[in-house]
Amino acid sequence: MRLARVTEVGPYVGEPYAVGREVVAQGLGDPLGGGGVHAVLFVCAGGTLNKCDMRSAALDLAELESRAIGLRSYESLFIPGIFQSEDYTRAIFRVSDVVTNPSDIERAVEFRMRRQAALAAENPPTVHAVIHEAALHMRFGGSAVTRKQLLRLVELAELPHVTIQVLPFAADGLPMANTPFNLIASHGGILETIQLDHASQSMFLHDPDSVAQYRRHFDRLRGVALPPVDTSPSAISHDVRDSLGLIRHILYSHY
Fold first, then answer.
1. How far are the Cα atoms of 32, 109, 219, 230 from residue 194, in angstroms, in the given order?
2. Is 148 domain-assigned?
3. Using an 8 Å Cβ cutoff, are 99 and 36 in contact?
4. How far is CA 171 from CA 22, 194, 212, 237, 241, in A?
């Protein structure tokens, strides 16, 4: 395993100070050279401003997740990255215009898979995700890949520190739910950060007013979402009125 120390602007895009970050770069090539995804993910090597921001965002998000004590997430069209299967992630990158070279796609997939180590850590963060029903219907990689991804969601929901809710199409009183976001409590809970995904770049917010706003936003989303996935033996039957029932309905009726 190689540790590459990278000095860059951060930890939030656009902040005017430099920090040193240690990046695990095992098997990902030289993080200080070349172009493509590993340049986007590790250093801004002659890329566009948007790619530089996206690279910084990928590193910042991974670092925050690795130090998190709590993760709250809302996704509208994709399964959250920390829950994605390898094939699902690969399918997303293959249809994107951010990564085009096959070897760079594989590096990007490996980087995302490494982010998921937080779920299996000795003291893992509590993770609560609200996923729009639309994301369960999106067929990235075809039916087999989508089915495997939905089964993985159910499997991950068995972890005691993971809560998954589905926001159905029929949800009433839906709050502003167009922009996916992550609310991350890290560094022992001292730092809370909002990460917003946009088409060309990600944004990080950490001022108290923004954090409070997105806390309320997440509380409203989970309030109108279906009850959490429950795979315990006491949950004898499920129908489409709860999250597990809806996931199973989509699995058995579409895949």
1. 28, 23, 14, 27
2. yes
3. yes
4. 43, 24, 23, 22, 11
- Which phi and psi (to 5°) does residue 75 adopt? -130, 140
CB atoms within 10 A of CB 19: 11
Q: Which domain holds residue 155?
A: 70-254
CATH of the domain at 136: 3.30.870
b (16+ CB within 10 A) / e for 70-83: ebbbbbbebbbbbb
Task: In whole angstroms, give the CA distance from residue 184 to residue 27.
Answer: 28
Query: Could you identify the residue written with the tokens 């990080």?
Result: 204
Reference 62, options 96, 93, 99, 23; nearest CA is 23
Domain annotation covers residue 29 = no
Both structure tokens of 135: 């994301």
Angle at CA of residue 117, ends 50 and 177, nearest 5°: 50
- The one-letter code for the residue type at 16 is P
Give CA–CA dist 166/226, Å, rounded: 6
The H or E element that residue 130 is part of is strand 126-132
Count of domains for the chain: 1
**Contact assessment for residue 128 and residue 215, using Cβ atoms and an 8 Å cutoff:** no
In a domain, 120, yes or no: yes
Asked if residue 97 is part of any domain, the answer here is yes
CA-closest candidate to residue 77, choices 218, 253, 213, 198 = 198
| pLDDT 10s digits, 72-130 | 999 999 999 999 999 999 999 998 877 778 888 898 899 899 888 889 888 999 999 99
Radius of gyration of the chain (CA): 18
pTM: 0.77
